[in-house]
């Protein structure tokens, strides 16, 4: 199978994730979209690794997973505490950091 | 023997320090300490003079190096003194006349509770003036120059409780500052031109410098001389300086300090000899001032101000002579010395009259005083005969020589300058005769006079023993005051003859200043004759106006010229309109430029950045998703740019 197809898939997934980040308001959905973009990147890394015949891309994919796991832990904690205080998971409601 | 130069200056300096630091416990002896130290300085001067006379004419220069003041690379300023015939002449004049005036002040200031301080300032003045004439380089001379300016300021404003005295002191200081600026620029120019400002290197290398630079230095030195010596256009302070006590007017504003400008020009003779344009400017300033001062002197009713106008005029003669170059240097200094005698004597006489007349200065309230003050009358009269150039007295010899030298300049200039000097001699005879007649002859106008008007000058503190409004009881001054007057009168009578007969003064000073005979279109006898005619005309007119007719006690309105001369020929009005108003306009327009242009740029920049940041602030709206849009937009831009760069 032609590896370029995997790149198309990665681009598609990334676009879906990016669009989701921009148009959805629910913090959980937003979060899932970010994960989708991260995984699209991982897919692209692995594909390039395969195409160029070295392991650098695969190693970076592992790093990304570790960082993503850490991010999920922190991010979910923030979302939960936000929901507890404001009774809403909408990101537009948490817009206090402005001048 | 040169080790005696430093003590010469140190003695009055010590006196100033002791008297000013010593405080009230010295009040009872302070004046004698001051007089003693001043006399000590005079004695040192006499010893040095005897030493110089014992040497050959070419070896009469002593130098004493004390220490190196500022050693910085090529900039070398030494505290070195130089005593040659020129400085010796000044030393004897300054310390001699200075000591006599110290003695006189003991009597004159007797009732002043701040007499100790007065003597401290007088000693300070002597030290500064000696430093000025003994310095071996222009920078050290500048120290003395500023020192005498300070002493003059302190002494003019000595009765600082009188607002007029405080103002006059300030005015003298400020006007002098303009001249001092000229001296400091001249010193800087000397340093850039010659790499030094010591007399030796500067005055012996004038041939190496371009004439333009020498002219610039000369004009700056002339500016300095104008400030210190009250020459046009910086003359306005001298009349007001008469607010100071009379001994100060005699010592500083007649005999010594105001002649410092003449010293500067004669000392820098080598520079002027090589810069004819600057020399011409000096003669013009001298000629204009000698007429200016004489005209002012004719119109003043205040005896001291009339004498001040006369001082200005006589220094004009000296400056004129100094501007003539080697023809005139010796005669400038000779007139300076004889003028030191007779003008100091005249001022001391005026002080003595004021002392006996409840400090009245208006000559229209004098009259007939010769019976009451015989010694003052005789000494003042001898000074009067000396200044108008009565044959045989000192002014006759010295002024005549200057008029001769002016004619000897040759050409049209010679005729103009000589004519101005002759005219000046006639006016001098007029105004001095006027002073003499109004003070010592005529009716006794001080009897039964109406009480003093509130606007009249207030009495000096010395007058407190007499009632403010009482009729004055003219009396002769004490011996301590008359003795200095007698000594100075002797000097005024015999000084000129002593200097002139056998050309003594010429031979004495020639090695320093150089001398050349000009070719005069008139014979010496013709000039003397013309001077005599002018003298007689001046005296005759004055007698017709003030001797034959009674002098009105209230000044008549007078002609336009008289009224202008009473206002010092409008010098203050001129300064006010041109300098004060001009300065105000300049500062106002500068403030306007500052407010509109400079502040406009600064405030405009600030407002521009403020507005810009106000707009940029809107981007910070708190919505996470809009930040995400910026991020994506930015990333997309970066990718697009990268692709574009690779495509190119």
Q: Your description of this structure?
A:
The complex is a heterodimer of chains A (99) and B (648). Chain A has 99 residues and is mainly alpha-helical. Helix content of chain A is 78%, strand content 0%. In chain A, helix 2 (27-52) packs antiparallel against helix 3 (56-86). The mean pLDDT of chain A is 91. Chain B has 3 domains: 1-274, no CATH class; 283-447 and 477-555, no CATH class; 557-610. Chain B has helices at residues 5-22, 30-53, 85-108, 115-134, 138-156, 163-194, 199-204, 211-229, 236-240, 246-255, 260-267, 269-273, 276-299, 303-323, 329-356, 374-388, 394-408, 411-440, 479-500, 504-513, 524-547, 560-566, 571-617, 624-647; strands at 62-72, 75-83. Chain B has a two-stranded antiparallel sheet with strand order 1-2. Chain B is globular and about 115 Å long. The interface between A and B is small, with 12 and 10 residues.
Give a concise summary.
The complex is a heterodimer of chains A (99) and B (648). With 99 residues, chain A is mostly helical.
Itemize the secondary structure elements and their pairings.
The complex is a heterodimer of chains A (99) and B (648).
Chain A: H1 4-23, H2 27-52, H3 56-86
Helix pairs in contact in A: 1-2, 2-3
Chain B: H1 5-22, H2 30-53, E1 62-72, E2 75-83, H3 85-108, H4 115-134, H5 138-156, H6 163-194, H7 199-204, H8 211-229, H9 236-240, H10 246-255, H11 260-267, H12 269-273, H13 276-299, H14 303-323, H15 329-356, H16 374-388, H17 394-408, H18 411-440, H19 479-500, H20 504-513, H21 524-547, H22 560-566, H23 571-617, H24 624-647
Antiparallel strand pairs in B: 1-2
Helix pairs in contact in B: 1-2, 1-4, 2-3, 2-4, 3-4, 3-10, 3-15, 3-19, 4-5, 5-6, 6-8, 8-11, 8-13, 10-15, 11-14, 13-14, 13-18, 13-22, 14-15, 14-17, 14-18, 15-16, 15-17, 15-19, 15-20, 16-18, 16-19, 17-18, 17-19, 18-21
